[in-house]
Amino acid sequence: MDTLLLFLNGFKDCLTIVNLLCAVTGCLLGSLIGVLPGLGISGTVAILLPITYGMTPLSALIMISGIYFGSQYGGAITSILVNIPGEATSIVTCFDGHPMAKKGKAGKALSIASISSFCGGTIGMLGLTFAASALARVALGFGKVEFFAIVVFGLLLLTSISGKNQMKGLVAVCLGVLLGTVGLDSLYGTARYTFRIVHLYNGISFVTFIMGAYGITELISAICIPEEQSEVMEFRLRDQLPNRSEVKACWKTVLRSSVLGFGVGLVPGAGSTLATFFAYGMERSLSKHPDEFGTGIPEGIAAPESANNAAMYAGLVPLLSLGLPFTSSMALLMNAFIVHGITPGPLFISEHPDLFWGLVASMFIGNLILIVINLPLVGMWARLLKVDFSILMPLITFITFAGGYAINYSVFDMGMMVVCGFFGFFLGACGYNMAALAVGLFLSPTLESAFLGTMTLYHGNLLAALLDRKIALVVLSIGVITFVISTVRSLRKFVSETVKA
Amino acid sequence: MKQYILERMRKIVAILLLVMGIIGLSVALRTLKIGTFAKPQGGFAPMLFSVLLIIFSVINIICEFLKPNSIPGDLGDVNWVKFFLYIAICIVYVALIKLLGFATDTFICLTLMLKLAGLKGKARPVLYSLVFSALIWALFTFAMDVPLPRGFLI
Question: Is A225 close to B74, i.e. CB distance below 8 A?
Fold first, then answer.
């Protein structure tokens, strides 16, 4: 009862004209900047943070929440319209979002993404509201062995769900993980695969990689492959909203994916990214028509979008309850709180209940305003695809280059984008799943640290580690079983195709 | 010749990936400390991932050689002149950006790219390029405070 009262009190504090204006401005700016390739959530919050300096803490929190959720939605917009995910969490949205846009349903895809994000965010917020402290303790109980098991599970699942050829998925994951080891080793500081090139000491930037492998590759395809124009687009608002059958198909997906996303999002580090893959994989395995996933169906967008928003709230659990940010965007959010005199930590909820509940309410308001202002704007974003491709694609190429440069102020990164685009084009054309490669690269440092930590802790005996940590054993076993089943299916299909040929 | 290479592209790519794995493993073994299972060093993970890449690549190559030759995906429809010109413009853009400065380099390369993408006329690509390069430059310089490369021009 106390929680509910404090929660409602938070809303009362937030619902003023000034605060609502802050929320609208934050959401709009976040979406607009988040749409620029390369900037992602961290970049957008970093760029727009100075705007909030002169505000009261609560107004600033509301604006930062708006920027945060707005930039996440901005990533979904580029994933759907031009197949360029701004963040690792938006990669899965490309699987069905872009094919749906190609079918002439870009508006519908964007509105499904927007509504699913809102639902995922609301469910995540409820989890954060009522179980923050207890869940934070559970999350802290995760050690190196559990991390290792979850990351391996994620990668195995990824090879099973992405693409038609599982062996190519495995090769892509291994290549991604190997590329992720480029640079200085985090434990001993050893330079690996740097070939005395100073720019490689920090490793291959994930954002640079996806901008090249997805962005440049997509632009090459658009310019160099004569393609039939996308089907006629509908621009009436009614046609851009999901119809009754689509809502019916998606609501269970949204609920399941949000709950799963919140649970997986508690895993420190790469929780949000893994949540999108797990949700997509779960929905595909539960679906009556799994083969339609990847061809542009609403469930394929609803699953990752609701999961990543719920996971974002779950990421706030260790941040607010324990003062531990586990991702760069969470660290930046914590920095934004500190700038405004709010230090998250174990005593934050008990010492500043007004600010904590104000923050929770502000996030809900940010999420709500995002859907209110973005649904009418869906048509505007979708209309971008009506712009002459001979103008749009070169323009996106150079905005992508500028975005790539802005990450580290490095011309080397721009060159790296071209290299990734060139090779990504051939790898993609030959059936290698770029999502598997990208996520392998993204999870490589976490996997390496967890694996080496486990081996050191258990004196090189991985089996002893798994027997000692039961959760890890269960997670890894499920991963291996799923993988084996999927491999057997894939092998049968390959044999029958080869025999036919 | 083009047809011959395209039909064997899947095999070429599969072999290239195996070569990458072999290079990764040999560099790891020659230049990095591997350590032991109980006390792994900086080269342990690269070695392990290279070995996995080699194993899966070998299986992948076997699968590819069991299939008949065919042109993969959309590669048959690619306009290769445009493809190599696109890559060339990107390389020239990156190579000249520090020398010419962001705005000038973007203006020149965007004009070329617009022509390559099929925008008709002589004045239109130049005009669009002028406006868009100025807009991108202003957006990143003033709105986002990004210090874009400055050459002897801007």
Answer: yes
Q: Where are the domains of chain B?
A: 2-74, 79-143
**Among the listed residues A385, A131, A77, the one whose alpha carbon sits nearest the alpha carbon of residue A235:** A385
Q: What is the pTM of this model?
A: 0.81
Asked if A185 reaches chain B (Cβ–Cβ under 8 Å), the answer is yes
Provide CB contacts within 8 A for B54, sequence distance 6+.
Answer: B18, B21, B22, B25
∠ CA A315-A318-A321, rounded to 5° = 130
- What are the chain B neighbours of A494 within 8 Å (beta carbons)? 63
ipTM over 0.90: yes
For residue range B66-77, list pLDDT tens digits in order.
888 888 877 888
- Dihedral sign for Cα A267, A270, A275, A281, please: negative
Count of CB pairs separated by less than 8 Å, A with B: 185
Read off the pLDDT of residues A326-335 as tens digits, 9 standing for 90 and up.
Answer: 666 677 777 7
CB contact under 8 A, B38 and A181: no
Q: Which residue ranges of chain A lie beneath pLDDT 50?
A: none
Q: Which of B57, B91, B140 sits opposite A402 (nearest CB)?
A: B140
Q: Which of A476, A439, A490 has its CA nearest to residue A92?
A: A439
Of B41, B45, B56, the CB nearest to A181: B45
Inform me whether the C-beta atom of residue B52 falls under 8 Å from chain A C-beta atoms: yes
The residues spanned by each domain of chain A are: 2-500
